[in-house]
Fold each of these.
Amino acid sequence: MFAGEFCETGNAEYNIDMSMAHFLFHGRLNYFLSREQRGGEININFQGRQSVKHLAESLGVPHPEIGRVQVNGREEALGYITEDEDIVHIHPIENGCPIEPRFLLDCHLERLNAHLRMLGFDCLYENNYDDLPMAKIAASEERILLTRDRRLLMRKMIVHGYCLRSLDPLEQVTEVIQRFELVRKIKPFHRCLRCNHTLQAVDKDAILERIEPLTKQYFDSFHICPACGQIYWKGSHYERMQNLVENIRKAHDACI
Ligand SMILES: [Zn+2]
């Protein structure tokens, strides 16, 4: 199903122009392989000049998920041109975030977008982005692409990205926090959930006419989005946010 001049085989005949390499994928990269391929050596027949990146992606493993590559015991770059009988070990990219944690989410991730904004992260999300414009935005704005579509992650211009494993938005947010090591960067009450702009504190007096009597009575501290005018206070949003942060920290602590 993936593009490329290759075929995978255990015992197929191959002609004199065909080369064979032996690929081993480690750790969480096994997620991308078929059940039979996981944990073992995969023999790939190929013709001509084929990079490790191309052959790995032909097996369904997107390049932004790949970290160290070792060929016959040597460290090599992902662009290394594979040779006949090479033994290629491919490791997952290490957790951490080499750039500002700013995200671009594909159109299926509306709830993840809301959760990440709630935690204070800069997230770009539109429900009508097509693949090519998304890839271009991710590249030009240096954003981390979050998607469950591995073909989108395989686009050449994507540098930073992550394929969400879970379908559940709360599990997805935990995945993102762990993969990019963001626990210490969580800043609740920092960003507008509607438009992603950063919030500003605002005097209660300045917004008195816009809030309900009960809110007026029980809350004194308010924030406003200078872009869209949405007002925030530590009511129900805040409780949801606190619960989310607590659950994420628990999940994080359980993993270290
Ligand atoms: Zn806003």
Amino acid sequence: MFRTDVQNTGVAIVGGGLAGMATALRLQASGLSTVVFEAHGHLGGCAGYWRHKGFSFDVGATTLVDFEPGGVGAELLDSVGAPAIVGEQLPGYEAWLPDRTVTLHRDHDQWHAERLAKFGDDAYHRAFWAELDRIADVFWQASRAGIKLPMRRPADVLRNVTAVGLRHLPAARHLRETLVQAMRRHRVDHDQALKTLLGMLVEDTVHSSVERAPLINAALGITIRGAGLTRHYGGMHGFWRTLVGHYRKLGGLVRTGTRVHRVRAGFEITTSRGVTRADQVVLAVPAATARALCGDLPVARRLSRYLERDRGEMGGAVIVFLGVPEAEIGGHGLTHHQFCHDYTQPFGDGNNMFVSVSAPGDTLSAPPGHRAVMISTHTSLSAWSTLDTEGYAHRKKEIGERLINLARRAYPALGDRAVVAEVGTPRAFERYAFRPDGAVGGPHQTLRNSNQYAVPHDLGGRGLWLAGDSTWPGLGTVACVLGSRIVADGIRRERRLR
Ligand SMILES: Cc1cc2nc3c(=O)[nH]c(=O)nc-3n(C[C@H](O)[C@H](O)[C@H](O)COP(=O)(O)OP(=O)(O)OC[C@H]3O[C@@H](n4cnc5c(N)ncnc54)[C@H](O)[C@@H]3O)c2cc1C
């Protein structure tokens, strides 16, 4: 057995996705010595990137959420002394429904006018939107103030009451409600176009549906534009360059191409490059991976309860990466679009897909005169898991062509003279981001498994922490950053108590 070059460290972080790196940055900036073990050749995971023929494509997340001043992401950068992000702050994006387009403005007043114009200006719609806005305002504010779920001890209750604010506490009554229940209360549940748009937003942000999404989580997901969406200059490649550069400057160690195979009591960490020891460990990997790595530790048994409960709640994604001449991207001021093509069909496999185009002049994302385009859609894992080689190649080609064709509703010549045209499937997420079975984004969020029932960060017991999109509050860059704050606070508290 080789020895790693890292013989002993304060905190070992397993997984260099956003949750792992955000936690590592916070701890390193507060004076602890940290090392990040990342199985892939570079950092990023589901918020990573793929460079090819002069283009830099985002492999999963294209937009950073709430990284503008006062936001959850900005708090991370401020607290570790990292520079603010540089990129295109999206003024909004276009939703293409089967019979209309709706501009999802970031600006609240414009959005309010648009939603009344496109879905109906009556007392029912107005009351529904007002309630959604109220809930979102309270819980965005609480997120920025450090709300923490699930509550495990009396101190958590106190923390959350402070974060939500006494006068907003009545909003907590919505914790047991779903989005569709709120729509019914306001008699807007028969508005098919509205239900579809909300369903699209909810699927992309909380991995759920109008029928099953907890109302509070849905309200936050539906309003993420208001919190600010930014595509970094150079996409995720540009973002990671800045983030990792800063982490290294602080003295943090990154070990890419180093897969962790086992974490034992003590903590002894067996990696593909040898064995190392750490005082504390953060498992910033999917819950199923955390369980497999910790087979000998009590946390594996504890995680099983959650993983069994959420079996059948996992989903995958397909991405098309296109490098195209600038001329194929014309006619739109907005660079991001979301499409639903058929009200009567279920979402997924193109029916609800997101198109993200690199900003004009972003030559880190695409060579001059070209643009990088990412088209993503949800897909069921079972549709991919049983395919033989031929069936897989066929399905991959077919869905790639379908997504490009569907995106031509916005960009009619898209892909005609593509320099790059590739398709990423759940198998790619399994292979390059080490996501078990290619599942991305954590379980579909429901009343049974979210918030107070989500996987707690401290499930591992003293010294062993869980982070990432299978822990509370779930998927998304803002969620991972929020989780990293809870984990870093917990680790520092443990140290003070020693
Ligand atoms: C298609 C798609 C589009 C998305 N779009 C957006 C968006 O626009 N905005 C947004 O906010 N969010 C978006 N998301 C969600 C967001 O990307 C994820 O929730 C987030 O990046 C997850 O980060 P993580 O650190 O929890 O997990 P991961 O990104 O999966 O990171 C875990 C890391 O651990 C590594 N790893 C795994 N096993 C091991 C091991 N044994 N040893 C060492 N390393 C290991 C992996 O290689 C990986 O780098 C999107 C997701 C997808 C899939």
Amino acid sequence: MTTPAEQARRTDSVAALQRLLPVDLVERGGRPFDPPAGLRQRRGHGAVQPLTLANGAGAWLVTGLEEARAVLGDVRFSSDRVRHPGATRPQPAAPHAGERTDGNFVFMDPPEHTRLRRLLTGQFTVRRMRALESHISDIAVRHIEAMRAAGTEADLVPAYALPIPSLVICELLGVDYAERAEFQERTAIALNSTTPPPERARAATELYRFMGKLVAAKRAEPGDDLLSGLIRDADPPLTDAQLTDVAVVLLGAGHETTANMLGLSTFALLRNPEQLAALRADPALLDSAIEELLRFLSIIQMGVSRVATEPLTVGGVDIPAGATVVIATPEVNRDPRQWDDPDRLDLHRRRASHLAFGHGIHQCLGQQLARVEMRVGLGELFARLPRLRLAVPADQVPLRNEMLIFGVHSLPVTWA
Ligand code: HEM
């Protein structure tokens, strides 16, 4: 059985890759709504470009939409950093003879990924999502009322953007929200690309311990939550290690992502008043607004990558076996072959599928939930606080340049 520390190292491979990328490909500097400068400079240099990593290894950068789809839709591009460590080599390749014993399916290939993904999909039922929707509305309204009751100014991140998805994922997994400090802080440390690896490993290990205890509690006393459902439905049963991994993945993926989309989307709309006015005038625009914000903001910046398991060709470029391929999502989502004037936020834009949720077998499992959280979260916020605006100059809003998931650290707003 793999240990929590080994699991942590696997998860760390995303951070390891980020550290090997040139900084100007990762950090947006002071321009929160533009792709990082290095990506913008590479425009016109091809949809699949060679890239040299900090350790001297050659890699490939994919900036075109069709090419990114081709990579993510082809399972010969592996997600498994243990069997195919690629250029990042987060750990020595483990001599895996048989099936993997862990449950971190984000870093698995078929057939192991298929079984866990199918089990999880079975838990994200329409019934459960519907039940969550009214719950999400209650949470959003309650937090807006609390902000109003406390005055006329707030930092929107801790007051609104973070609690909504955190409460929802706790509800889904059956985690006691009172214990949120246990996971919010540790997830933040684990997702900070500048955290020294030993500290990150410690935070991740603690997170696994926390979740391990929860799994034991659900085994002893199952409830109506997703973890209990997995314990009940999986045949053959999942091990404690697998369940713990699944829980850690969902907890991390489920709250940091949507929280940052809520914070950054609000910032983007407040900085584009004509777009916000259009949304306020026509709330029916909300669904297409959310798709456009997902495209325009691309908060998972360079976090999606694969390793070629054999020589492969993408967009006419030959990629050797063992090469790391990095999907430059902020650029992919601005592909001029797909969108006119792609650097413009345009809520009326004709819908075209973006890659904010990825593509292929690993496409975001929580995307419908994330959409509901954004629809309710942004809808209630702008409807209930019609005078909402920034409480500080825009250039004083601290950006999450060092984090694996982009967004704002805080968003001081007022509604007086
Ligand atoms: C706006 C919010 C979100 C964004 C932008 C986002 C983005 C993504 C992306 C790009 C991937 C693909 C990773 C890859 O191909 O390597 C992914 C996978 C995943 N997401 Fe999300 N996500 C969001 C919200 C959520 C939520 C709310 C949950 C859970 C409740 C979630 C759970 C997952 C899981 C479990 C996977 C892995 C799926 C697999 O490997 O089969 N995500 N997400």
